[in-house]
Specification:
Jelly Rolls; alpha+beta
Amino acid sequence: MFGRSGRALLAALLVCAGASASGQTTGVVTVAEGGLVLVRGTATYAATPGVVVHNGDMLAVDPKGQAQIEFDDGAILNLSRGARAFLIAAQGATGEPGVALQSGWVKFTRAKATKGKPYRYTVPLARLSTPSATGVIRAGPDGCELFIESGAARLVELSKSGSPGAGRDLKGGEFVVRRDGQPPAVATRPSADFVKAMPPYFRDDLAAFLPRVRSRDAEPKREHEASYDEVEAWLKASQPVRRGLMERFQSRAKDAAFRTKLVENLAAHPEWDPVLFPEKHRKDEEQEKAKAQ
């Protein structure tokens, strides 16, 4: 249903993620409109075309913005309308490069044939693996909707905690709705609501702009240490996605505002308890040692 017409609109495009042969998720921002926020390490940066992104980077576009990142293997991931993406290291026994998506609209594709490893897209309550499919995702806190425009993909159900469940193969034209407590609902075409709400440019093929910006070698502009609000979605993500984030952002617990938010939301990320209340855990350890003697 999405043709090759309207390429004139493609100058308004978005963000993407990919991987090298070593499994590193790396790419280049080729277009950024409305502001592209990059969290690297514990700091927040403003990213512009030419900036290289890699494993561990968290990306967020403005609710009215778009961005695009491209990769030498042809992979493109478009983020729109407040979408958030987290580039994570290669996952699983097959070493699939991973991208976690938490909100907003996303279109992904692989612009040329490649023998590279499949990509693994983790969204709320589902995980999609594909070597070359083109598709559209709408992600939200209560689940996701996925449309496979062309190609083939493997869908695995995830629990809220991120534990894998049943899986099934998908082919071009199929549309999946995944909600908590319900099995995936599969249809042979996307719903009318999905098509109506989708960013209009998602109807067209994604164009590659990497040759235009490859030589820019731009550096992201550091703005400030990341606030809790800027990383909250990932600190509260499923356990497999947020693994390692406590160690990464531990130094931010010294900031009063960040610490207050951590305490307020502790139930969503209990692994922070020893960092926030070390004296309590020291006392518990001493009591355990005393019992063992």
